[in-house]
Amino acid sequence: MTTKSPLFSPVTIGTLTLPNRIVMAPMTRQLSPNGVPGPDSATYYARRARGGAGLVITEGTTLASSAGPEGAPHFHGAGLEGWAAVVQAVHAEGGRIFPQLWHVGAFREPGTEVSLPTSAAGPSGLDGLGESIAEPMTTADIDRTVEEYGRAAADARRLGFDGVELHGAHGFLIDQFLWPHTNRRTDGYGGTSAGRVRFAAEVVAAVRAAAGPDFPISLRLSQWKMTDFTARLAETPQELEDLLLPLTDAGVDAFHLSTRRFWLPEFEGSERTLASWTKKLTGVPVIAVGSVGLAPSDFETAFAGQPMEFAPVDRAEELVENGDIDLLAVGRMLISDPEWPAKIRDGRTSELQAFDPSALMALV
User: Fold this and answer.
1) Is the dihedral of CA 212, 150, 78, 47 positive or negative?
2) In the prediction, which pLDDT does 145 show?
């Protein structure tokens, strides 16, 4: 019996209508040898489309000037050929798919050494701990990187993707410009919120110009960083609005708000979540993500070898029904259970498979 959940009603992002509101969240898998997604990647993403996800967003796929972890897929050179096969496989299942364009900038895991291309040095050459690891990007570096995003978006359209997502969260390049901790610039790309958001807005505008007016653009944002779960870009709704409106004006069709727990209030004195505030301030569709379907326990538990229990999706349904959010991105649950959306839709919750970290070892 099919549920009447609001999660399974159509929704539109830009000019694209999706059959339901379940999104496969981007999850780095590092299983693309030499940066090329293989047949296993095509099968992996196609299974999630067949399992009922209304939209698939790929794992972060790196631009040519970006460093990245070994095994992460590339969105340049031979990597594009691999992505063409992924798109074909997802479309064969009736699915829709966006690549997530990822530039890590001046990012490194704490305690590790890193070698970065000059153009990947970040706004001030600082990593997430505030330590200098490279020279700051010059304005010429910035211009080249903005152009690179545009070329990647044009490639995405040429390959048949249905839209594109820009990774502007978690302490990577776009986020490094937005976050005062990593952006210490004193020119037009730093200082005020208008300066800090300038790079992101130029990237969005370049993507829009390269891919055209009818190619949806999603931008993923977060307060927290890989190196600091307590970090914040905005302390108040007004500060959040100051960052969001230039991005909306530049051409963002949807914001994807990454939080540790999607249902928690964002600012003191209001029950609104980060996604809900974003929709209220911008009026564009929002995707909420953060521990969907998992037990309300520590964020890190799923990666510590402990099997997870289920948490109901009632809160997400309530937020959709009330117009606070538009879409719900599901991550870890879709790694272990490709049919998670269909099982939720059809009321087959007894068949749901719990997330098991061992599933991270292969693309299945």
Assistant:
1) negative
2) 95
